[in-house]
Amino acid sequence: MMTSNKHDENKWDLSFSLHSSSEPSPESSRQKPIRRGDAVAVRYFDHVLYRDSDLTIMKPTVREAIGWLEDQNDDFIRLVWERYAEPSISENSRIRSTGIALRKCDVIEIARIG
């Protein structure tokens, strides 16, 4: 399922669908919705910090990330791309993971993979 975000609408409910409008996506009738724990690919706008540069060419850049959808709310999604796989790791270590939190208004598209 590939879903595009219209930047003026950033309230998705990922437990049901990632289609960003009130109309159901044509793909939604054929594919399962993206849920917490699913492996996903995300394209998003990233901020650019510049210094002593030509400001006329500075703009957010498009980046991509792949990981597990760990959580979401009305404003952001949290994507984990590195986590412990061993269940025997101590609880203190298991809560540590690596990923990115993205504002939904910066997400261009998201797709379940695997």
Description:
The chain is mainly β and 114 residues long. The protein has one domain. It is built from one helix and six strands. A six-stranded antiparallel beta sheet has the order 1-6-2-3-4-5, with no helix packed on it.
Uncertain residue ranges: 6-25
> What's the helix count?
1
- Backbone shape: globular
End-to-end separation in angstroms reads 11 Å
Structural class: mainly beta
**What is the typical, i.e. mean, pLDDT?**
78
Number of domains as seen in the coordinates: 1
The count of DSSP E runs of length 2 or more, i.e. the number of strands, is 6
Order of neighbouring strands in the sheet with most strands: 1-6-2-3-4-5
- Cα radius of gyration in angstroms: 16 Å
Task: Summarize the amount of helix as a percent range.
Answer: under 10%
Q: How is the main sheet built?
A: 6 strands, antiparallel
- Quaternary structure: single chain
Share of residues in strands: 35-45%
What series of H and E elements makes up the topology? EEEEHEE
Descriptive terms for the model:
114 residues; mainly beta; 6-stranded antiparallel beta sheet; 1 helix; globular
Topology of this protein?
Blueprint: E1 2-4, E2 39-46, E3 61-72, E4 76-82, H1 91-94, E5 98-103, E6 107-112
